[in-house]
Design goal:
Heat Shock Protein 90; single chain; Beta-Lactamase; 3 domains; 522 residues
Amino acid sequence: MRLQARITLMIVAIVLLSASVTIALSTAMFINRIDKTLERNLLNVADTVARLPVVLEGLRGPPVAGEIQRQVRTILESLADVDFITVCNMKSERYAHPNPGVIGLTFMGGDEARVVGSGAKYVSVAEGTLGVSVRAFVPVFDGREQIGFVAAGTMVYRVEDLRRQMINYSAVYLVSGLVIGVAGAVLLARKLKGILLGLEPEELAQLHHDHLGMLEAVHEGVIAINADGVVTLSNKSARRLLGMEKVDLKGMRLDGILPDSRLPDVMAAGEAEYDREQRIRGTMVIANRVPIIEKGKVVGAVETFRDRTLLVRLAEELTGAKQLVEALRASSHEFLNKLQVLLGLLDMEEYGRAKSYIIDVHRYQLVQNKQLLHTFKDPVIAGLMLGKSGYCCEQNVRLTVTPESQIGHIEDGTVSHVLVTVLGNLIDNAVESARNIPGGGGRVVVDVRHAQGEVAIKVGDNGGGILPGHLETVFKRGFSTKGEGRGIGLYLVRQELRSLGGDIAVVSRPGETVFTARLKTF
């Protein structure tokens, strides 16, 4: 369909919709006004009749065709919109009615109960001797005593005739407005056609695609696919990160270019993902993925990604620094405890014991530091383990590093800080599990091996263990049995390990839990 025809149909649809809504609302408003006016008129007529002296005097006598009937008939003949006026006593016996034959009989409809029971004024719809009617009820009072009531009504078919007449007028207005709208739509479509240089939507789309070259100036990588997973758009930054700078990716399948992309999952779910980590050819990136939705249907998706390697390394360094700060805090606390022991010995003038204590502490520290420095050649890892040793003493947990443990100097700073993250989190979790064992019986065993470009880490404890159903769940983000705000450490450990081609596993039973982690040092 050509652009002019589309615009014309759209404008006609808008005019039709707006006119229909407007006229429908106005018609409803006028019909409501007609109904309210009719109800008010009927109440006024009934109220006027209820105040007539002849009605007040006549209701004291028997219900027969008398002066009330003659007076009411005279009033009824002078009214154009009222079909009947009925006067009744408190027994609902008629004194006046358009049909003299029913005078003396009981009022029909059943809707007079309120006026008889409570003297209320109201309007209702019910079926009487003349048919279905809208009727207004007004009580008749003689002083403070209610002696009867008056009902004035109009037949429903007459009210419906008025409503139909109003609807017919509205239909005429609607058609007139639609004709004017169509004429305006045609003129507007011609005007827009000229403004768009006579181009059709398909031609405009092609022109849009021809100018996508501006994306080449964008620093972020951009790649888009259609519903079949075929690449429809990529810029220079995306091709550079993919290592395919000189390859035209358009028409290629995404799974052959970027197997780990979650764009197909985003299209399936129809929901965007923001700031997700992803590794592309060894480069850490932060990716945003957004589905393309057209007419409620997902027709493709776009992914943008930024090279965040430097920021990721900085984050890893900050994580490692946090571990080292915690380790130094524990060492400081342990050193303070030793100073307090010395202070106590000096206060008691136990100078000899104080001297022996200093020598013993110094000797123990030398042996421990020598052993840890011999085992962990990398100064960052050695510093962490020294601090964790003091932390374990503080928590009354025995830390043991297996004699077979050995790790050399790590040249890659990223690998070094990942090791800090892994060891720090695993030892902290092990200490937290083992520190509640009575009598200071908690133990944590660390085994670290470094050989043939791979580091293997085992951290075990003799705590309460992990429930069988939680062995895999413990690595999910946010899962924790220790309360809210936890469940991040093991998730980060697995993420860091997998970013370097490694992984982590756990074996647990009551009294023994062992985490085993492996990663490549390249």
